[in-house]
Structures are given as C-alpha cells and as structure tokens.
C-alpha cells in the first residue's frame, strides 16, 4: 500500500513540475489562451475555433444575441472577379444612392474594372490559426494629443478613410496604412504599401477609378474630383454594393440615407479581422466634430445625411458588448 501511495504522489509532483516547466519555456499571455491551446491539443481544431486571439474573436456569436441578429459572416465585403453580379434588389437599392447620368452598363464597367485590378477573393483565411488585429482610424479631432500612434501602428492592419493624413500627425494617428477607404470625391494619393478600397456609390465612381489610373478624363462627378491618383494598381479593391446594403439594413436599421465611410470602414473590419480597435470616432470631449488636421465647420452635415448619432450608438454598443475596443481620445 505505501508503495502505491508513493507512486501516486510521484505522479502528482511530476505533473506539477512538468506543468510549471511548460509554463516557463512556453509562457502564455493569459490563461484563457492557455486553456484554448490545451483544449486544441487534446481535441484537435474544432468548428467553434473562429480565431486564435487570446480574448475573443469578433465573429463569435454565441452569447451575443444582439450581435448575432445583425452579423452575417457570409456577406462578403468586396466584389471579386469571380462574382460581381448583383442581385436585382441590391442593384436597384444601390443605383438610387446617388444620381448619375453615366448611363453605363454596370456589368460592362465591372468587367473592365477587373481587367485592370485583381479582384481576388481575400481575407477568407479565418480560423483557429489566425488572430488578425485591426485598427480602424476615423478622422475625429478627438485624436489630437491622444498619442495613440504607436498603439494604432502595432495592429496587423491599419484602416483609414477619406482625407485622413498621417504625415505630421504620426504621434497621434500612427504612420502605417494598409487600407484606405475612399470614394472619388474624397480621394487622395496613397503610398505604394496601401490598398485603395473604393466605396462606389454610382457607376460613375467605377468609371472614375478606371480613368484615374489611365486617361484621367473624368474630372468631375457632382463636384470636381482628382483626375488621376497615385496608388498601387495591384492592391485596389472594390467595396461591394451588396455589403453596403447589408451594413445599412442589418446594422443601421435603415437610419439616414446611407452609412458614412466611417461606418463602412468599421463593418469592413468586423468582417475581415479577428480583433478590432476603433480610434478617432465621434466628437471630441468638448462636443466638436472637427477633423484632427483642420477646423471643419461642415462636419455636422455628416450627422444628418448618415444618421450619425445612430451610427455612433451602434459603434458604442459594439464596444460595450466587447465586440470592439473603442478609444475615445481627448
Ligand atoms: C446571410 O447572408 C447570406 C448570403 O448573402 C444569405 O443567404 C443568408 O440568408 C443570410 N443569413 C441570415 C441569417 O440573414
Ligand atoms: C454572388 O454574389 C451575390 C451577392 O453577394 C450572391 O447573392 C450570389 O450567391 C453569389 N454567387 C455565387 C455563385 O457565389
Ligand atoms: C448590361 O448588359 C448586359 C449584356 O451584356 C445585359 O444582359 C444587362 O441587362 C445590361 N444591364 C443593364 C442594367 O442594362
Ligand atoms: C442610442 O441608444 C440608446 C440606448 O440603447 C437609445 O435609448 C437611443 O434611442 C439610441 N439613439 C439612437 C439615435 O438610436
């Protein structure tokens, strides 16, 4: 009998030793990840392993009823060369967003677009081995003096929008940009590392894209636009009108005319990232809606066209339910 007890104790001591040694040679950032990795070792990857992030994955719907009623993983944010045909109802919705006298045929224009730009199916690699962190950087004046730059740049992807500059504002907004979302009237030149993600509101916007990389003949939409643009042609992506409608209907409950670029950018991140941090959204602490690089008296307009309060509400709610992290700045 004593021999047996001795053996039992030995096993326990050895297990504890092995466990602590393991912890030392392979330190885990937190116990939740340890648990996740351990169960993966024991059971192999399971379908519920949506990502490899230590805390939780954005796409996790279990225990998130409000989120799961809105989030639909199978709506893809980009148009691809393989599939750019829009269902009739989505096409009709999209065609009413901004009037344009272009008269061009959508599928003909798209065919041309994807003869010039790759149109690949990207970011579909979600799974137990991926933890993609993303920073979505809005243009709010609340970034001024925030010193968020290093935190923003430490993400795998850094998503910016419209006129948002980095040069001269690196301490507060960071220096890297992997994706820049824009439409013709908000376009700016980009670094070669950055993907231009066009949000098209009309067929003319897609024609402008073709023109901006070639002849430069389109200089005007409902206002003057950049005739040409500097950006890497191989990194151009086209935001999907079907996804635009999904953002408007599923997420905004049809508030406003259509979502803002800020909201489209957030939705983009929710669908291609496993962890999302949001910077530079909403007013500053004094209630001003300035941009971080200028005094902008017209920013109130954004709120009426886009149901800005409602967008901000939804964004806040995503943060309170720990779906995203929100940094409110100064
Ligand atoms: C999610 O989107 C897919 C593809 O667009 C659609 O077929 C499906 O019905 C949607 N699911 C829900 C629950 O709305
Ligand atoms: C193409 O995309 C549309 C809209 O996103 C979708 O309804 C349709 O099922 C897709 N078709 C194929 C073959 O994937
Ligand atoms: C665009 O052209 C195709 C044929 O190439 C045609 O089937 C389609 O109906 C046209 N679309 C519109 C909106 O006119
Ligand atoms: C924002 O959310 C609060 C609480 O959920 C709600 O009472 C309010 O009506 C919402 N505002 C808008 C504009 O949706």
TrEMBL record:
GO terms for cellular component: extracellular region; Golgi cisterna membrane. One of its GO terms (molecular function) is beta-D-galactosyl-(1->3)-N-acetyl-beta-D-galactosaminide alpha-2,3- sialyltransferase. It is a single-pass type II membrane protein. It comes from the Eukaryota. The keyword Glycosyltransferase applies. It is found in: Golgi apparatus, Golgi stack membrane; Secreted. It holds the Pfam family Glyco_transf_29. The chain crosses the membrane at residues 7-28. Disulfide bonds join 134-273. This is CMP-N-acetylneuraminate-beta-galactosamide-alpha-2,3-sialyltransferase 1. Its main location: Golgi. Homodimer; disulfide-linked. Homodimer formation occurs in the endoplasmic reticulum. Keywords: Disulfide bond, Glycoprotein, Glycosyltransferase, Golgi apparatus, Lipid metabolism, Membrane, Secreted, Signal-anchor, Transferase, Transmembrane, Transmembrane helix. Its EC number is 2.4.3.2, 2.4.3.4. It catalyses: a globoside GalGb4Cer + CMP-N-acetyl-beta-neuraminate = a globoside MSGG + CMP + H(+); a ganglioside GA1 (d18:1(4E)) + CMP-N-acetyl-beta-neuraminate = a ganglioside GM1b (d18:1(4E)) + CMP + H(+); a beta-D-galactosyl-(1->3)-N-acetyl-alpha-D-galactosaminyl derivative + CMP-N-acetyl-beta-neuraminate = an N-acetyl-alpha-neuraminyl-(2->3)-beta-D-galactosyl-(1->3)-N-acetyl-alpha-D-galactosaminyl derivative + CMP + H(+); ganglioside GM1 (d18:1(4E)/18:0) + CMP-N-acetyl-beta-neuraminate = ganglioside GD1a (18:1(4E)/18:0) + CMP + H(+).
């Amino acid at each position: 009998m004593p021999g047996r007890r001795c053996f039992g104790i030995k096993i326990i001591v050895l297990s504890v030793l092995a466990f602590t040694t393991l912890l030392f040679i392979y330190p885990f950032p937190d116990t939740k990840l340890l648990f996740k990795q351990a169960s993966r070792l024991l059971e192999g990857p399971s379908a519920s392993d949506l990502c490899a992030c230590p805390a939780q994955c954005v796409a996790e719907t279990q225990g998130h009823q409000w989120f799961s009623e809105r989030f639909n993983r199978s709506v893809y944010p980009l148009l691809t060369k393989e599939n750019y045909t829009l269902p009739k109802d989505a096409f009709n919705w999209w065609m009413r967003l901004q009037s344009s006298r272009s008269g061009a045929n959508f599928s003909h224009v798209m065919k041309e677009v994807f003869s010039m730009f790759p149109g690949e199916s990207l970011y579909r690699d979600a799974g137990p081995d991926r933890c993609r962190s993303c920073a979505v950087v809005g243009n709010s004046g609340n970034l001024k003096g925030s010193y968020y730059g290093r935190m923003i740049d430490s993400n795998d992807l850094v998503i910016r929008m419209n006129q948002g500059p980095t040069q001269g504002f690196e301490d507060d907004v960071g220096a890297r940009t992997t994706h820049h979302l824009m439409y013709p009237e908000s376009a700016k030149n980009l670094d070669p590392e950055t993907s231009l993600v066009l949000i098209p509101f009309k067929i003319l916007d897609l024609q402008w894209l073709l023109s901006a990389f070639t002849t430069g003949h389109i200089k005007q939409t409902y206002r003057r636009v950049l005739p040409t643009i500097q950006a890497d042609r191989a990194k151009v992506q086209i935001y999907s009108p079907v996804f635009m409608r999904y953002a408007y209907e599923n997420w905004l409950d049809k508030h406003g005319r259509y979502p803002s670029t800020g909201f489209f950018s957030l939705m983009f991140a929710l669908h291609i990232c496993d962890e999302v941090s949001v910077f530079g959204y909403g007013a500053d602490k004094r209630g001003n809606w300035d941009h971080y690089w200028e005094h902008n008296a017209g920013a109130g307009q954004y709120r009426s066209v886009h149901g800005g309060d409602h967008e901000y509400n939804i964004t806040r709610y995503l943060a309170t339910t720990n779906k995203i992290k929100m940094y409110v700045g100064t």
